[in-house]
Amino acid sequence: MTGTLYMIPCPISDETPVWDVLPAANRAVIDSLDYFIVENVRSARRFLSKAGIARPIDSLEFRELNEHTVAGREVEELVRPLLAGRSAGVISEAGVPGVADPGALVAEACHRKGIRVVPLVGPSSILLALMASGLNGQSFAFNGYLPVKPPERLRAIHRLERRAAAERQAQIFIEAPYRNVKLLAQLIEACAPQTRLTVAADITSPGEYIRTLPVGEWRSVELPAIDRRPTIFILG
């Protein structure tokens, strides 16, 4: 019998207590595991320690799955223990694994091998931002990171804005936190006044900021301080 792969969410913000944002039912699953596939070992150990896991942290096995992991043989090695009957938990750096996250690689490998994949309930900054945005929750797309170079980023912004207007589809995207300010400035400069823009920073933290305004109004208000703060942007 094969094991089970559990996709285990963790808090988005380090300032938020684990069990304030995760359902208590997750505790039994976490306590049952001794093998974790994680984006970052240090972050995962800190999360499990704050969660009060039943087993000693030093008795657990951690294997990393991140942007440096090579799809193929390395991922197959991560899955091998599950084929032998051992269950595993996948933990992202923040939020839910497998969504804008390399955890999708091990989930895909498990599906190919007939291993059950179980997603647990927890916070996703993408969905939480959309929930609070007032934009179209019936039709939306997550576009990941926009290009870094300003001319290419401008073309991407215009493409997403056209799609949002033509299809009434909310266009969700992110940026490296240290580039947030430049992206916000370019969005406000480039988009039409009637285009609605959501800025959602530090979701679930005590300093959470979520606001949606037409771009024309963003041009006349004080902009949020989002430098180096994890932020979701949505055009609608």
Give your account of this protein's structure.
- This protein is an alpha/beta fold.
- It folds into two domains: about 5-120, Cobalt-precorrin-4 Transmethylase, domain 1, CATH 3.40.1010; about 125-235, Tetrapyrrole methylase, C-terminal domain (Methyltransferase, Cobalt-precorrin-4 Transmethylase, Domain 2).
- About 35% of the residues lie in helices and about 20% in strands.
- It has helices at about 20, 25-30, 40-50, 75-85, 105-110, 125-135, 150-165, 180-190, 215-220; strands spanning about 5-10, 35-40, 60-65, 90, 115-120, 140-145, 170-175, 195-200, 210-215, 230-235.
- The model has no long low-confidence stretch (mean pLDDT about 95).
Q: Please give the alpha-carbon distance between the first and last residues.
A: 47 Å
Summarize the amount of helix as a percent range. Answer: 25-40%
Which CATH first-tier class of the largest domain would you pick? Alpha Beta
CATH homologous superfamily assignment of the largest domain: Tetrapyrrole methylase, N-terminal domain
According to CATH, the fold-level topology of the largest domain is Cobalt-precorrin-4 Transmethylase, domain 1
Instruction: Please give the radius of gyration in angstroms.
Output: 19 Å
Strand-and-helix sequence, N→C?
A: EHHEHEHEHEHEHEHEEHE
Number of helices, counting only DSSP H or I runs of 4 residues or more = 9
Could you give the count of β-strands? Answer: 10
Give the biggest beta sheet.
Answer: 5 strands, parallel
Q: What is the typical, i.e. mean, pLDDT? A: 96
How many structural domains?
2
Task: Give the CA-based shape.
Answer: elongated
| CATH architecture grouping of the largest domain | 3-Layer(aba) Sandwich
Task: Quote the beta fraction.
Answer: 15-25%
Structural class: alpha/beta
Placed side by side, the strands forming the largest sheet appear as 3-2-4-1-5
Uncertain residue ranges: none
